Amino acid sequence: MIKIAVDVMSGDNSPHILINGAVRASREKDIHVIIVGNRSLIKDELLKHQEFDHSKVSICHADDVIEMHESPAKTCKSKPNSSVMVSARLVANGEANAYVSPGNSGATMTASLLNLKRIKGIKRPAIATPMPRLNGSTLLLDAGANMDSKPEHLLQQAIIGSIYVSKMSKIKKPKVALLSIGEESVKGNDLVFDTYKLLKKEKTINFIGNVEGKDLNTDKCDVVICDGFVGNVVLKVSEGVASVVIKFFKQEIKKSIVRRLVAFFLLPVFAALKSKVDAKEHGGALLLGTNGITIISHGNADDTAICNAIKFAAVCVGNDLNLELKGYFKR
């Protein structure tokens, strides 16, 4: 049984919505959910849920919560019994195989670094997130963990990302690219120039050169590398565009009876589109490089997003992803 700790006290949505997502995930085969937060609140909420296996849901009490506006580094140390810190400790102590948190991203990363520590040899863990494309997805990293990356950090991200895609997507030699303002090697800033040189020399990855932003949603590459500042901007813009597209479809469909009739027959198409571009369908992003599986879910994650994040965490655990990373950097 794979045990996933879920921080239900953090994030923008109320705990009962996140608890609902955790209960939904517990109905999956081989998933045991540890709900972390205020024990009495969680108990009261669970009484409202009738159809679930009680042996696959447990509670771990946490006294405190780290709010979105609080400083990650300071608050993680001043609030050791916050829900995100308790969740990370459960993984560190072997009581859970992974944890999910929709709260302060910086606090989630700090909690993992303090409790799980980095995999030996990895200088800076990175946030990896899938960018949808027609067939499958392109892995983008770093999506926000490091704002001041150096070339050697991006080189490691390329190696980590390549191992991840190879393990999770069964692609033998994932195509790795560097995000820039042009495909030519002479375009970019100093970070891109210097990183390009390192990636070109690295023999353990299949580096194909630079790509532009428009290539992220194509099959041109399997892994795209950039610093955390650029990556986070790319991610947020993509989420915004996807949200507008979905709202645009809904708005236009309502303008006439004919459009509504046509939309009825296209419902499977709309459902497929939504599953591709809606961030809730992916659940969350993986923090790669620590001694444990950490899933950083969106701040406004609802029950569907949390449920999918838990299932994603279970898949990562089942694939022994960290074992592969540790083996590489040990060699």
Key traits:
331 residues; alpha/beta; 18% strand
What does this structure look like?
The chain is of the alpha/beta class and 331 residues long. The chain has helices at residues 15-26, 39-46, 72-78, 83-92, 105-115, 151-169, 190-201, 228-253, 257-265, 267-277, 279-282, 303-318, 321-330, and strands at residues 2-7, 31-37, 57-61, 98-101, 126-132, 137-141, 175-179, 206-211, 223-225, 284-288, 293-297. It has an eleven-stranded mixed beta sheet with strand order 3-2-1-4-11-10-5-6-9-7-8, sandwiched between helices.
The total count of strands amounts to 11
Q: What structural class should be given to the helix and strand makeup? A: alpha/beta
Distance between the termini: 30 Å
Instruction: Characterize the largest beta sheet: strand count, sense, and whether it forms a barrel.
Output: 11 strands, mixed
Radius of gyration: 20 Å
Total helices: the number is 13
Topology of helices and strands:
Blueprint: E1 2-7, H1 15-26, E2 31-37, H2 39-46, E3 57-61, H3 72-78, H4 83-92, E4 98-101, H5 105-115, E5 126-132, E6 137-141, H6 151-169, E7 175-179, H7 190-201, E8 206-211, E9 223-225, H8 228-253, H9 257-265, H10 267-277, H11 279-282, E10 284-288, E11 293-297, H12 303-318, H13 321-330
Parallel strand pairs: 1-2, 1-4, 2-3, 4-11, 6-9, 7-8, 7-9
Antiparallel strand pairs: 5-6, 5-10, 10-11
